[in-house]
Amino acid sequence: MKRSLQSRRSRATALLASAAVLAGLAAAPTATAAATAAAPAALGVTAPAAATVVPTAGAASASIAPTAAPVVPGRGNTAANLFQWTWNAVAAECTRTLGPNGYAYVQVSPPQEHVPGGAWWTSYQPVSYRLESKLGTRAEFAAMVDTCGDAGVKIIADTVINHMAGADSSGTGSGGSSYGVDSFPGLYGRNDFNDCRTDITNYGDRWQVQNCRLVSLQDLRTGSDYVRTKIADYMNDLIGLGVAGFRIDAAKHIPASDLEAIKARLSDPSVFWVHEVIGSAGEPIQPSEYLGSGDSHEFQYARNLAGYFDGNIAGIRGISNGLLGSDRAGVFVDNHDTERDTHGTMSYKWGAKYVLGNVFLLGYDYGWPTVYSGYKFTDRDAGAPMSGGRVQDASCANGAVWTCTHDWTEIAGMVGFRNTVGSAPVTRWWDNGANAIAFGRGDRGYVVVNNQASGLNQTFQTSLPAGTYCDVVASRTCAETITVDDSGRFSAQIPQYGALAIHVGARAGDVPTDPTDPTDPAEATTVFYSTSQGWSAHRMHYRVGSGAWTTAPGEVLAPACAGWVSRTVPTDGAVITAAFTNGSGTWDNNGSADYRLSGAVAAVKDGRVTAANPCAQAPSDTTTVYYATDRGWSTYRVHYRVGSGAWTALPGEALAPACAGWVSRTVASAGQPVTAAFTSGSGQWDNNGSADYRLTGAHVAVRGGQVTPGSPCA
Ligand code: ARE
């Protein structure tokens, strides 16, 4: 197939609306607390078997010598960091996207018991090392390790071992343990904390940084044998559950020799560690100091990356000058701290440049890359949406809340690129002396990054074999192809702030062209737009995934209900990028950032995107559950929970006769799904083959394993 320049031009137009973001000027997308349904929990009668990996024997003789995140054959070692995702949601995502996209690792948020509260950072204030947190239970964590393992994805746990809770609070943790100053009953007391009781104020003072309190967090005496043993026990527990690697939070605040001593106590002392040591100029403690117990994150790489993309990228080949060696550096475009606090990195709020930064991260040959994927926010402290003390399960169908960076077409394509090119060296470098670059990875792949406000029309010399290649940045379905001629050359037009990547693992014919992913949550998105601006007509100018834009001013939105117009767009699960207009010159393009719309429903009002259908009738306050009596039990009970609330006491509550062949019970569901199993009350259960039933709506009937909306007695 010949490359379509027309479609390339459309992509150029596509990114035009995002141009203002590039200077970081875009209005911050607003996180909304759109309700995601709580995932069904297993009945909770028996805990799943936990152990999946037997700790290595002979620990004492094993080496704590550092290991880069081990390459998984055929997969590479790229990680995704699913920040504040629940274990159930991570498990589902491993199966749905992380495994299929080729990720080898997923980094999860700290799993230990923590202080209560709605801020994200409660995860960083341990109360005990029990795996009971707002992100899930121990059983759910173990199940996630197994499910992800089946999908080919290993777990890296973020471990908080420098400190416990802040000295400014006391109470009961997420797992029910009590805590206070110097008081973590059964685990730590006064002697287990360093003597310095004041906060770190001077990062130039090594002693202070490693002995005093980081933002008032009670600083563990990691020089003590006892504390080292407790921390090692915790990490060994995680290794026993099958965890493959660790991020060591706040490593700078722990002497490197203490960390080496802790690592030596692990059942697998060569397990992968990456230290969070924020390298900052002029400080005595630097990332290189920690290479005795693992790799370190190279924050300067992320700052450099932002600097190049904010200016000119022609010199980006020098990005790693003076930094850690490539085989010891954990790299990312941003992480959960740098997207919030002033660390000089990019974030999802940078729009198109952020995508290009990730393309470079995955395309170039420096460091071990982690793709960061969190949730949208305006308030620095705001946690992900919670209900009943737990974070709601993330879903990429809920694009109003979760960024799902890890599954953006461009990024998923580049994970595949990286897996194919492996360690092939950077070759055939090209740049235009300004803001466009291109390079090969031996004879395996070739990438072009255009960080200019104008399109790039260029012929490139590659070392690739002749053939027709899929542009894996443009689509997942080989919708756009590149023909490399017998001398290894190809010509292409790359849109402004666009990229192109081809590799020998994705040639035309290799890649299925049917975009339908049966596991995708939404194959169409109904977009609602509020009429509150008083426009006389409403249109949406959009593209799906990296496809072509509609012809401006876009397509008409039809009246949906009072105050709203709408249009349903087939997406095959891809994200819609859109701007709205009255068709006569007035635009709402989200402060130049455009809107990213996904999921079954995306409703846009006053610059905010929510996932609830504004035209749906108000959810019922109650759900009447009907259960067929054809099982012939003498009594019928329903054991259930609402949303992610508590389960009823076993064996659940009685169902009363409703009409011939049916019993029923009305549950106060407040519009949330009811997760349920049915029982005779004397040992017989129908728990939908262990999956439980998920029941929604005002009336819902269950018979023979089938759930039907409405009342069978009506
Ligand atoms: C919260 C409140 C505080 C309160 C405390 C105790 O915000 O006001 O005193 O609770 O109640 C995260 C949040 C914090 C939060 C903390 C505990 O960011 O806001 O405190 O959790 O809930 C330094 C460290 C580095 C650290 C950064 C944030 O060196 O290790 O600060 N990063 C990790 C995590 C964070 C986490 C913690 C550590 C604590 O990634 O998410 O904090 O577990 C220069 C220096 C850096 C320094 C940086 C910022 O660049 O070179 O070393 O980083 O400044 O100060």
UniProtKB/TrEMBL annotation:
The keyword Metal-binding applies. It catalyses: Endohydrolysis of (1->4)-alpha-D-glucosidic linkages in polysaccharides containing three or more (1->4)-alpha-linked D-glucose units. Residues 522-600, 620-698 form the Carbohydrate binding module family domain. SUPFAM superfamilies: (Trans)glycosidases (SSF51445), Glycosyl hydrolase domain (SSF51011). PROSITE patterns: TAT. CDD domains: AmyAc_bac_euk_AmyA (cd11317). Keywords: Calcium, Carbohydrate metabolism, Glycosidase, Hydrolase, Metal-binding, Signal. Pfam families: Alpha-amylase (PF00128), Alpha-amylase_C (PF02806), CBM_25 (PF03423). SMART domains: Aamy, Aamy_C, CBM_25. Its cofactor is Ca(2+). Gene3D superfamilies: Glycosidases, Golgi alpha-mannosidase II, Immunoglobulins. This is Alpha-amylase. It comes from Flavimobilis marinus. The lineage of its organism: Bacteria, Bacillati, Actinomycetota, Actinomycetes, Micrococcales.
